[in-house]
Design brief:
It is a single chain. The protein is α+β, with helices and mostly antiparallel strands and about 100 residues long. About 45% of the residues lie in helices and about 10% in strands. The chain contains three helices and two strands; from the N terminus they run H-E-E-H-H. It has a two-stranded antiparallel ribbon with strand order 1-2. Helix 1 packs antiparallel against helix 3. The longest helix has 20 residues, at about 5-20. It is globular. It starts with a helix and ends in a 19-residue tail after the last helix.
């Protein structure tokens, strides 16, 4: 799949499934598409990942409630079926991120 086809499918299809099931739980649903830059030697390589997905929740309890909802068989099946159209599942990773920000002002 080309980069353009991937992004078109994600924004036109997969995003809508995410919005449907994250609504009422998540406060943000952000897709950050990766664009390669040359390395220090000027070489340009394909990035390992095409997109970094961020889902923000107001608190841990809401995160857990959403995760439980997403495990319902009919919801999990719809998401998994669409992911098979879009991702190489061997390379999909998930993380919980702790954020620390520096004041630069």
């Amino acid at each position: 799949m080309t980069i353009e086809a991937f992004r078109d499918y994600y924004e036109g299809n997969h995003r809508l499934i995410g919005e449907k099931y994250l609504k009422g739980f998540a406060s943000r649903y952000v897709r950050r598409y990766v664009n390669a830059l040359p390395d220090r030697d000027g070489e340009l390589y394909d990035p390992e990942y095409d997109v970094v997905l961020e889902v923000w929740y107001p608190d841990e309890a809401t995160f857990k409630a959403c995760a439980e909802n997403l495990q319902r068989p009919e919801i999990a099946s719809e998401i998994n079926d669409d992911e098979q159209q879009l991702f190489d599942m061997r390379f999909m990773r998930s993380y919980v991120v702790e954020e620390y920000e520096s004041e630069l002002g």
